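If you are new to this repository, start here. Below is one unmodified record pulled from the training split, so you can see the exact layout before writing a loader.
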Amino acid sequence: MKKVLLSIGIITLIFVIIFYAQSIRAKKHREEIESMCAQADSIYRQGFTLTGFSYSEVKNILVKEFSNNSLIDSFIIHPNEYPFDSIRQRHEAFINNRGMNIKNVYQFYIEGQKPYILSNITLKVQTHRSMLSEIFGCDIVSYQLNHEISHYGGYIDLKKSGYKFPWEK
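And here is the target side for that same chain:
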């Protein structure tokens, strides 16, 4: 009986040490990411959702980048041809080949729509948890789209003017 209790005690102690070491490692990793995030001025491989559009409307989206009210670049993005959510007609697009400076203003030109104006992007460290791990990322936590603040991070959603979700009709 004493051997069993001693074995259980040793195993418990080993688990406590492992979890404590993991906690210290996670805290150090978060501090490193926070430092990098505080200095970040660009985001890479940014994703966008395009809600309520047919593919023909969004197959070529012109993006203009402005710094201090001066046009500094323009480029085209192409969404995936097939919607990832056919009920809401949502296409997905990424800016893959370049970074986006979070201090700049971006205008997205979609056929038949007024330009979507993206500005004031804010980054913050967010926790990404799975069942077995906890990692940290420098993610978008807010931005302005057409002068309205959004606190939805991650993907930036460009919704077709006048579009209503099926449950809103």
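Two things worth knowing about this chain: The CA atoms of residues 56 and 81 lie 9 Å apart. The beta strands are 42-51, 61-67, 70-77, 90-101, 105-109, 116-129, 134-145, 148-150, 156-159.
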